[in-house]
Amino acid sequence: AHSLFPPVPREQLPPLIHHINAEDEWPSLVELISTQAGIPESLVLELLRFGAVYLSKPLVPGLRKQRVGLVEGMGKAMRVTTNVPVPRGAYIRVHANPKRHLEANDVDWSNHILAEVHGLVVIDKPAAVPTVPTVDNLVESALSRVQEVVRQPLLSTSRLDTCTSGVVILAKTQEMCEAVNWALRNRQVEKVYRVLCYGPVPLGTLRHCWRKRGAGGHSN
Fold first, then answer.
1. How many other C-beta atoms lie within 10 A of the C-beta of residue 8?
2. Which of 4, 111, 134, 142 has the largest CB neighbor count within 10 A?
């Protein structure tokens, strides 16, 4: 039951997800998780802050504009970051061992901001750090860390793979985010990718083979 925040062990723990159904009403989500999953309350509070807890509440009959979940009669599972009361019949998912991206803690993010103009923040994303928060880790991402530097919410206009370093454009407003997305869709932005190889690359056209997964898409 170590802390999720630095200093932490560098090794990656295997995934561990707790699924909890609230058979009764609980005044405290932290108390419920600690009781049902056997996790110390101090660590549950960190998991909440880390963005590793999701809560799905039963739909309220007759109430409009509810976000419907995959399970009939239940609302969509939403990320919870604070201790809240839990209604009877709610479902809780706890990612007890979030996937870590510890490299995010080693970066001076103020030095990775290339420009801050016209409602945009352009950054140099380092390798080994995801562009945006992941399903079980709200803290260790480029977006989260740059938000802390500029002290305001940001929107991602595009993403780079976790293993890839390079330029990422973040927007301060929805309007600027849509403007950049329009430029990307309409090929108004030139992208240049550079690959570091261990050996010489054959010249000519390199074709990637795809095999059909079904009517809904493909897999490589």
1. 13
2. 142
Question: Tens digits of per-residue pLDDT, 161-188?
Answer: 999 999 999 999 999 999 999 999 998 9
The predicted-structure confidence for 29-76, as pLDDT tens digits, reads as follows 999 999 999 999 999 999 999 999 999 998 877 777 777 777 778 888
Per-residue tokens: 180: 């950049």
What residues have CB less than 8 Å from 134, skipping those under 6 apart? 99, 101, 141
Number of DSSP helices (H) and strands (E) in the chain, helices first: 4, 10
Instruction: Report the C-alpha gap between 1 and 168 in whole angstroms.
Output: 35
Residues 6+ apart with CB under 8 A from 186: none
Q: How many CA atoms lie within 13 A of 11 on its CB side?
A: 3
Angle at 218 between CA 77 and CA 127, to 5 degrees: 70
**Residue 96: burial class (beta carbons within 10 Å; 0-12, 13-18, 19+):** buried
Q: Which alpha helices (DSSP H) does the chain contain, by range?
A: 29-37, 41-50, 142-150, 174-185
Cα radius of gyration (the chain): 21
Residue (of 125, 129, 133, 123) closest to 103 by Cα position: 129
- Residues 165 and 176: their CA atoms lie apart, in Å, by 23
Whether 53 and 94 have beta carbons less than 8 Å apart is answered as yes
Q: What is the pLDDT of residue 1?
A: 45
